[in-house]
Write a structure and sequence with these properties.
The termini are far apart. Helix content is 41%, strand content 22%. It folds into two domains: 140 residues, Jelly Rolls, CATH 2.60.120; 80 residues, Arc Repressor Mutant, subunit A, CATH 1.10.10.10. The chain contains nine helices and 13 strands.
Length: 264
C-alpha cells in the first residue's frame, strides 16, 4: 500500500510526536518492479550504467510512491534520509522566504534525482520540492543507498556529476539575478525552457510545460506584475504567444539578442 503523506510532504511511517521512523523503509511505499528499474535505467543518467545485477539490487531496496499535483514532497529545513527519482511528472525545487515569496531554483522531469544533498551530508533539506502535476517517484533510503554507492563507484561518480551540474546551474542563476535586467533574465529562462521542453510547431517552439505568470516571476526573481508587463510587450511585438499558461516562442532570434543584453 502506498504511503500517505503528511501536511509537510513527508513520507509517512514516522511517529508524529518524535518525528522518528515508526516503520522500516522496507514497509513504506510499494515494491519497485522490474519495469520500474528498466525505466530508471533508461531515463536516469545516474543509473544508466547499472548492469542487470546492480539494477536488481536497486530494485530490492527501492520503493515507489505517488503524489497528486501541487503536493509538497518535502520542505526546506526538514531532515532528509532518502533521495527520490522522478519517474513520471514534473516537480519544482524552490526556496520560500519568511514573507511567503517563492524563488524557483529548477524544474525537474523524469529521470532527475532530488534530495541527494541531505542524503549524502546528513544535513537538513536545502530547498522545498512541490509537484507541478501528478507524479510518481522511486525512493531510496540512506541506510541502503550509501553502501550501494560504496560498492558501485560508477553510480557514485555520476551522482557527483549531477550535483556539479546543479551547482553550476545555481551559480548561473545567481549571476543572472545579480547582473542582468528583466528582459535578459526572462529571455534566458524562456530559451532554456524551449531547449528542455520545446517542440517545433508551425507557430514556433511550443514549450510543453504550463507555467503561470507567477511561476515565471518566481523563476526570474521578480513579481508577477513585472513579468506580465514584459510578456504582454513581447506578445504584442510577435515575439511569443502566451495563452492559459502555454508559451510558444515565435521569434527565438530576438530572444537570443535580449538574452545577451546585460544592461540593468
Amino acid at each position: 500500500m502506498a504511503p500517505k503523506s503528511s501536511g509537510s510532504g513527508k513520507i509517512d511511517g514516522t511517529d508524529p510526536n518524535t518525528g522518528k521512523e515508526s516503520a522500516t523503509p522496507s514497509t513504506l511505499g510499494t515494491l519497485a518492479t522490474a519495469m520500474d528499474i528498466a525505466e530508471l535505467r533508461k531515463r536516469s543518467v545516474i543509473f544508466s550504467a547499472l548492469d542487470e545485477e546492480e539494477a536488481a539490487t536497486v530494485m530490492k531496496m527501492a520503493r515507489m510512491v505517488q503524489h497528486p499535483a501541487r503536493h509538497t514532497v518535502f520542505q526546506e529545513g526538514e531532515p532528509g534520509d532518502h533521495l527520490l527519482v522522478v519517474m513520471q511528472g514534473r516537480v519544482k525545487v524552490s526556496l520560500v522566504s519568511q514573507d511567503g515569496k517563492e524563488a524557483i531554483l529548477s524544474i525537474l522531469e523524469p529521470g532527475d534525482v532530488f534530495g541527494e544533498m541531505a542524503l549524502l551530508d546528513g544535513e537538513a533539506r536545502s530547498a522545498s520540492v512541490t509537484t507541478m502535476e501528478p507524479c510518481s517517484f522511486l525512493v531510496l533510503w540512506r541506510r541502503d543507498f550509501l553502501p550501494f554507492l560504496e560498492r558501485n563507484p560508477r553510480a557514485a561518480l555520476k551522482l557527483l556529476a549531477a550535483l556539479s551540474k546543479r551547482l553550476r546551474a545555481t551559480n548561473d542563476m545567481v549571476g543572472n539575478l545579480s547582473f542582468l535586467n528583466l528582459p535578459a533574465r526572462l529571455a534566458r529562462i524562456l530559451i532554456n525552457l524551449g531547449q528542455q521542453y520545446g517542440k517545433l510547431t508551425a507557430e514556433g517552439i511550443a514549450i510543453g510545460l504550463k507555467l503561470s505568470q507567477e511561476e515565471l516571476g518566481n523563476l526570474v526573481g521578480v513579481s508577477r506584475e513585472s513579468v506580465n508587463r514584459q510578456v504582454r510587450h513581447w506578445v504584442e511585438a510577435g515575439v511569443l504567444d502566451y495563452t492559459h499558461g502555454t508559451i510558444v516562442l515565435k521569434n527565438s532570434d530576438l530572444l537570443f539578442r535580449e538574452a545577451l543584453n546585460s544592461e540593468r
